[in-house]
Design brief:
alpha+beta, eight-stranded antiparallel sheet, two-stranded parallel ribbon, 12 strands, globular
């Protein structure tokens, strides 16, 4: 039929192919919904069907609320018996349909005929949602109902496209079908999946994405919905999913010359797709380290357009300065001008200045670091980038830090200024300029206030010891280092370890290293293990420490030990190491210890310990895709096929939370909260809320803080390797990560567990790479690494 319509002159893009209706009634409801969405008046519509079918079709369409004109096409080539059978069948079905509608009318006497008919979208979605959710979670594309992508219900097609976009099966046909859909959100999920699985087939994917981008733009396809059905409830999406933006970011993930040219053309648009094009060019620059001269010029031109502005500077944070050529001057001028306009994208101007360097950029960054007119995230970014500008940057950083400390005095220990000071201090090199001595001695002598809390003492120690390490200049036993820690000792030991590692580890220096390698602080021990790769002179001391590390029950210690083991000279496997390594391989590591299991696969095969091949082959059958891919690489094979029955659906699949839940955190930094939202990641949001209810986060330390970037928590060991014991599969989405958005921390695909992060600034590199689980509340800029979550509350 479609072919004949095209021959009659109907534009192909105006033809909608629908093959999923099981009955004329479903066809009627789908057709009416389609006409209404396209703004077509029902009374001006003509329907065509077989002559023998007109009576029943007219009745069913009329009862569904659409009185349209009908054309009956005579059937040809039928015998008299076949024509009699058709008439009898139609009469019987018409009587059954009439009885059905009369019964419905009697049960709902005040409803209109259209309202009395069940909604096929809800009906089909309810029937298929459980199967789709399980197929998505278990990564089994073959379990997605075949009819889902042709359903008349847009919500069902969206769910199917979302599942395919997260599974990323080798067959991209379902994603290409989603890309050709008429529903904006379905298109977005198809584009997202194609972009994420682009590697190895970039040219074909770019052609498909670019072609669809042009067609939906000319056809005016609306953005994705802002509402989503979850079970029997409808929830608000945290971000609208625009298909054009998803396609543009997909092009950026694919990369290549054709993608870059397409993206450059979209920078001149007068809507938010121009900003998305800039971020997509940043994706290409991050992977390649450069962009074409034409793209660089187009980006600098776009900084003057209101729909792009500072967003056009995002790619410059990833471009090598040598690739800028004569445009360096324009880049500094554009960055300087855009710093006058506050907003979430102003941070990209700061990063661009740090990348390009030079006298003017250095002076601007130093003023910005000192200025209270900029946000804590922006000032932290300025300090971080000053530290990258070699000698001139170090001098400017020293002066700005001195001014900041003198102005704030003891006030640097509280609130969001602490993070700014710490970044500036840690951005100074281990051999800072002489001009930094004054501020370093001032910080090394910083005293905690009377009756200071453990949290404040921890902050004092972090600043004192970071300053002391730079003053000691490699003298690990210097007095300034010995007395720097006023807290639990971790900051002092970390600073001593840095100083110890600046010389050859022999004699008393080796003894000091060995003492620190057996610290009670996990992160100190792990840092000592990292030194083994750089200090071959450790000899037998390294063997002892590695054997002890491999025998640990802490996942991070074992992972670090396994990594360090491969740096040892290849002169035969020491029996102590062999015994410890076999014990680690036999240990029952939980599902979320992905990094530990992968490190053990690599270390066992590299050393040739007994059972290494069998251990790697078992990993090749693991339910986690990251473990399988790493095992395949270690075994030097093309791939490890996904197991058919090793992965079971998460228990949350059948009972996710159906609306946002607020979780409050009483911390050393004050009252904070996260509103966990199930709209885009129902399984992760449900799991995290359950962990909060169980008390998992109570008493936990916030183990990672990068001022101006993220705050991360959820590991009871405090080193970033641990979790709750259970793993979470990725529920990533084509949505942006704005300031104070919350995501699930990962160490590879499907490696989430209990760790979450809170963003402190706009970071487009996170978009689509992590599960979006909610929004944070409170002053997260005031959090310091090591702050404790004292109490947790859950409010429905």
């Amino acid at each position: 039929m479609a072919r004949e319509l095209v021959l009659l002159g109907v534009p192909e893009r105006a033809i909608v192919r629908e093959r999923c209706s099981m009955s004329t009634r479903e066809n009627a409801l789908f057709g009416i919904d389609l006409l209404v969405r396209h703004g077509v008046r029902l009374e001006s519509t003509t329907a065509v069907t077989c002559e023998w079918h007109v009576g029943r079709a007219r009745a069913l369409f009329s009862r569904a609320g659409a009185d349209v004109d009908w054309i009956g096409v005579p059937a040809t080539g039928l015998s008299r018996i076949e024509r009699l059978w058709q008439r009898g069948r139609e009469g019987l079905l018409a009587w059954i349909a009439l009885a059905f509608f009369v019964a419905c009318a009697r049960t709902t006497p005040h409803s209109s005929p259209a309202a009395s008919a069940p909604d096929p979208s809800a009906e089909l979605l309810t029937r298929a949602s459980s199967a789709l959710a399980k197929a998505e979670d278990t990564r089994r594309s073959q379990d997605i109902p075949a009819r889902a992508q042709q359903s008349p219900a847009p919500e069902l097609r969206r769910r199917a496209a979302r599942a395919f976009g997260r599974i990323l099966a080798p067959d991209d046909a379902p994603l290409l079908r989603a890309l050709e859909d008429e529903d904006g959100e379905t298109i977005a999920w198809g584009a997202y999946g194609l972009g994420e699985s682009c590697r190895g087939d970039e040219d074909a994917r770019v052609r498909a994405l670019a072609s669809r981008l042009v067609s939906i733009d000319s056809a005016g396809v609306p953005p994705g919905t802002a509402r989503l059905r979850l079970g029997r409830s409808v929830v608000e999406l945290p971000h609208a999913i625009d298909p054009r933006i998803a396609i543009l970011r997909g092009l950026g993930r694919c990369g290549g010359e054709a993608a870059e040219q397409t993206l450059g053309a979209w920078l001149s648009r007068e809507d938010d797709t121009a900003e998305a094009a800039a971020y997509a060019l940043g994706d290409i620059a991050a992977r390649r380290g450069s962009l074409s001269p034409r793209s660089i010029t187009e980006l600098l031109d776009a900084t003057r357009r209101r729909w792009v502005g500072a967003s056009a500077l995002y790619p410059f944070g990833h471009i090598e300065p040598d690739a800028l050529g004569e445009e360096r001057v324009r880049l500094v001028a554009a960055s300087r001008a855009l710093l006058e306009h506050a907003g979430p994208t102003r941070v990209f101007a700061i990063r661009a200045l740090g990348r390009v360097g030079g006298t003017e950029a250095t002076a601007i960054l130093a003023r910005l670091l000192e200025s209270g007119a900029f946000s804590p995230a922006e000032r932290a970014e300025a300090g971080r980038n000053l530290g990258k500008l070699r000698a001139a940057g170090q001098v400017a950083l020293s002066a700005a830090l001195a001014s900041l400390v003198a102005e704030r005095d003891a006030g640097i220990l509280a609130g969001d200024v602490y993070g700014v000071v710490r970044v500036a201090l840690e951005s100074l090199s281990q051999d800072p300029p002489k001009s930094a001595d004054g501020v370093l001695w001032s910080l090394a002598a910083l005293e905690p206030p009377a009756k200071a809390s453990p949290s404040v003492r921890h902050r004092v120690s972090a600043l004192r010891c970071a300053a002391a390490a730079r003053l000691a200049k490699g003298q690990w036993d210097a007095d300034v280092l010995r007395g720097c820690d006023t807290g639990d000792g971790e900051a002092g030991e970390s600073a001593r370890l840095v100083a110890v590692g600046r010389g050859e580890l022999v004699g008393s220096r080796r003894s000091a290293w060995l003492e620190l390698a057996r610290s009670k602080h996990v992160r100190v021990r792990e840092a000592a293990l990292e030194a083994i790769a750089l200090h071959r002179e450790l000899g037998d001391a390294a063997i002892l420490v590695l054997a002890e590390g491999l025998s640990s029950a802490i996942p991070g210690m074992v992972a670090k030990s396994a990594d360090a083991l491969q740096a040892l000279p290849s002169r035969g496997l020491d029996p102590r190491i062999a015994t410890a390594l076999r014990g680690a391989m036999a240990h029952g590591w939980t599902a979320d210890c992905v990094e530990t299991r992968v490190a053990l696969v690599d270390a066992s095969l590299a050393t040739g310990v007994d059972g290494a091949r069998a251990f790697a082959e078992t990993a090749c059958r693991d339910g986690n895709p990251t473990v399988r891919s790493k095992a395949a690489k270690a075994l030097a094979i093309a791939s490890c096929p996904a197991p058919d029955d090793a992965v079971r659906p998460a228990p949350e699949v059948d009972h996710p939370i159906e609306r946002p839940v607020r979780v409050s955190f009483d911390t050393d930094a004050g009252a904070l909260a996260v509103r966990f939202d199930p709209a885009l990641a129902p399984i992760a949001a449900t799991r995290l809320v359950a962990l909060a209810r169980s008390g998992f986060y109570t008493g936990i330390a916030i183990h990672r803080v990068v001022p101006g970037f993220v705050v991360q928590l959820g590991d009871r060991d405090g080193d970033g390797y641990g979790g709750s014991g259970d793993s979470l599969r990725c529920e990533t989405s084509p949505v942006p990560f704005e300031r104070l958005d919350v995501g699930v921390a990962l160490a590879g695909r499907d490696t989430g567990s209990s760790q979450i992060f809170v963003t402190l600034a706009r970071n487009p590199q996170l978009d689509g790479q992590y599960a979006f689980v909610g929004k944070a509340e409170g002053d997260w800029d005031a959090v310091a690494e090591g702050d404790i979550v004292r109490a947790v509350g859950v409010q429905e």
